[in-house]
Write a structure and sequence with these properties.
single chain; about 210 residues; Metallo-beta-lactamase, Chain A; 7-stranded mixed sheet; 3-stranded antiparallel sheet; 3'-tRNA processing endoribonuclease activity; metal-binding; nuclease; RNZ1 protein
Length: about 210
């Protein structure tokens, strides 16, 4: 399995002329997976050899602005570059609880209508992931509100046995999230490649003893 990493931004707190806010792309078999999307990420993509249209999954570590403020704009740019297609697979977005509300409200308030589907899979944090005074429970934010066009997606809880969150699994790899301690609930992501059976000519080996 071929994996290629491209750092689009490694700056902290705010971008600079020579250093973008946090963003990293993993290229895997023609797809691009984006990790964090700070301000200016789409500009950095244009300067790179990557194609933004290849982004199929987005992973957000936490809800500080230097990791998410570029996301609504990037989604709008991707929409401008696409055409309506009912068969288009949704862009999967993973991140902490509250991310769905942030995206939905940002796009609604800016009258932005995306031409492609997207899903938001939210990770429910535990209270020990940040200082007690900084913890905010976003689970009731949209309860009772009508969100007729809100994005679908799963709400993922910690698996105590694995001490992680299972995000996705296919024939080649498993992707999990694990808890990090920060000023706000934060997550890291692990991509684990599955064992691959070798390709041996058993009959030939037997013939050779």
């Amino acid at each position: 399995m071929s994996l290629e990493l491209t750092f689009l931004g490694t700056g902290s707190a705010y971008p600079s002329p020579a250093r973008g806010a946090s963003a990293l792309v993993l290229r895997r078999e023609g797809q691009c997976w984006l990790f964090d999307c700070g301000e200016g990420t789409q500009t950095q993509l244009m300067r790179s050899h990557l194609r933004a249209a290849r982004i199929t999954k987005i992973f957000i570590t936490h809800l500080h602005g230097d990791h998410i403020f570029g996301l609504p704009g990037l989604l709008c740019t991707l929409s401008l570059q696409s055409s309506p297609d009912a068969s288009h697979a949704p862009v999967d977005i993973y991140g902490p609880l509250g991310l769905r509300s942030f995206l939905w409200r940002s796009l609604e308030l800016s009258h932005s209508q995306l031409l492609f589907p997207y899903t938001v899979h939210e990770l429910v944090p535990t209270r020990d992931q940040c200082p007690a005074e900084e913890f905010k429970d976003f689970s009731d934010w949209d309860r009772g509100e009508a969100l007729p066009q809100g994005p679908p997606g799963r709400v993922l809880h910690l698996d105590p046995a694995e001490d992680s969150y299972l995000l996705l699994e296919d024939e080649q790899l498993v992707v999990r999230a694990f808890r990090l301690f920060h000023r706000v609930p934060s997550f890291g992501f692990v991509l684990e490649e599955k064992p691959r059976p070798g390709k041996l000519n058993v009959q030939k080996l037997k013939e050779l003893g």
